[in-house]
Amino acid sequence: MEYRPLGESGLTVSVIGMGCWPMAGVGWTGIDDEASLAALEAAMDGGITLIDTAYMYGRNGESERLVGRAIAGRRDQIVLATKCGLYWDGTTLLRDSSRKRILEQVEESLRRLNTDYIDLYQVHAPDEDTPFEETAATLAELKAQGKIRAIGVSNYDVAQMKTFAGQAPLHSDQPPYNPLIRDIEAEILPHCRDNNIGVISYWPLYKGLLTGKYGRGHRFPEGDSRNEDPRFQGEELAGTLDTLDRLKPIGDAYGKSLAQLIIHWIARQPGITSVLCGATRPAHVEQNIEAVGWQLSGEHQRQVDEILADLGD
Ligand SMILES: NC(=O)c1ccc[n+]([C@@H]2O[C@H](COP(=O)([O-])OP(=O)(O)OC[C@H]3O[C@@H](n4cnc5c(N)ncnc54)[C@H](OP(=O)(O)O)[C@@H]3O)[C@@H](O)[C@H]2O)c1
Question: Under DSSP, is residue 181 helix (H, G, I), strand (E, B) or coil?
Fold first, then answer.
């Protein structure tokens, strides 16, 4: 495993991070807590230090609770990242990054995670009804108290990051990034590189789509939100699968799967600090760890770039 500094936070994180959304069981079906715990074990055994969860992962904090169980006894080896500012009202997801809400959420997250500090505390998404300065000042206050060690945001644009950073140190951003969704290359990645802000990217496999394992006409079990996602349907899916078919022989030449090749490509993009890979099965985690620690030849790198250029929005 390779490790990189997370902006100016003083933290060092594994280039592959463990994403703990799927194990929350919201919108994903067939989740098994024991398998999720085994996946977390496999992550830590394989050298993953960055574990990413959130207050809203699970209608009642299921993901944070599982993470809390998994890291017991290994807390000091882990960079524990969670997020605030979103919460469930029944099945409706609401935003609130006010000082009052964050001060409540951080205490609840600390209890669920069974720890007295969070390494990286991230604002989950911009809340236009709360001044960004108020949100930033609240996280700075928590950092001064030692409850959190580093401060991040997620899903912010550059202007929002600048406003936030006027009030508190900003150590990381967490945006979506994969060969299908490349908007951050225009402004966000350059801004983060120029300002030494770490970038923890999410959706590397676009919810499993970029593994190529969900073929044309695939239907998920009822209740799986991917059945409603246009990228998993019809022409859009067929176009993506055609492109992945062209990529596959390159992965084969290195004994690597499509998932490993895609994660590898993301981890090599300038400005990316860590790639969050979601998983609920140990075998997936073990494969994702093997996405780094090897290199494509210059010619193969060029071919991969050329093929993936056909996928972006
Ligand atoms: N900040 C935000 O707003 C935000 C939003 C979304 C995600 N995130 C974070 O980013 C993480 C990653 O996103 P994600 O989990 O939604 O998507 P992802 O990592 O792109 O895909 C995860 C899914 O891909 C499949 N998979 C993973 N590794 C595989 C492998 N080696 N071979 C075959 N299939 C594999 C599994 O699907 P199956 O279960 O179907 O096998 C898994 O559930 C999340 O867990 C979360 O921590 C953050």
Answer: strand
